[in-house]
Amino acid sequence: MKPSEIKELIISSLNTDADPGIISGQLEKEGISFDFKKGFKDKVLDKVFSAGLTITRELEFVKSMNFVFYRIALTGVAAIVVLLISIFLMEGSLSFNSFLGLSDSYDESIVCLLTGN
User: What gap in Å lies between CA 55 and CA 23, rounded to an integer?
Assistant: First the structure.
């Protein structure tokens, strides 16, 4: 059997309609056998059941990301509070116009600039 035919058999075995017994029978008939070294089964099972370490690492990653997020969030909240205090001290109030940096005198000058008067 040519390598391309073997490759086609292996790829066709991935189809859901294919019968694995027929394909493995064809491969064995051609003299292709899959013999694994001693201890292969144990190595595979060790890898499969070591997934607990991966889950532990993911949990540690999520915990560290939560810690970093809270540090950044608290810093952001502190910056917003400082900004609100500075706006209140400069404008004397916490209105929408003071957030935009507008006061009564600025409103009049904007109207004058827009109307040309």
Answer: 36
Q: Does residue 15 sit in the same domain as residue 72?
A: no
Task: Provide φ and ψ at 76, rounded to 5°.
Answer: -65, -40
Single pTM value for the model: 0.38
- 24 plus 46 within the same structural domain: no
Could you identify the residue written with the tokens 């990301």? 65
Domains of the chain: total:
2
Cα–Cα distance measured from residue 69 to residue 65, given in angstroms and rounded to the nearest whole number: 6
For residue range 30-64, list pLDDT tens digits in order: 777 777 788 888 888 887 777 666 667 778 888 99
Parent domain of 16 = 1-35
Maximal CA-CA distance, the chain? 99
Same domain for 88 and 58: yes
C-alpha angle 26-30-34 in degrees, rounded to nearest 5? 80
Contact 20, 13 (CB under 8 A): yes
Distance CA 33, CA 35 (A): 6
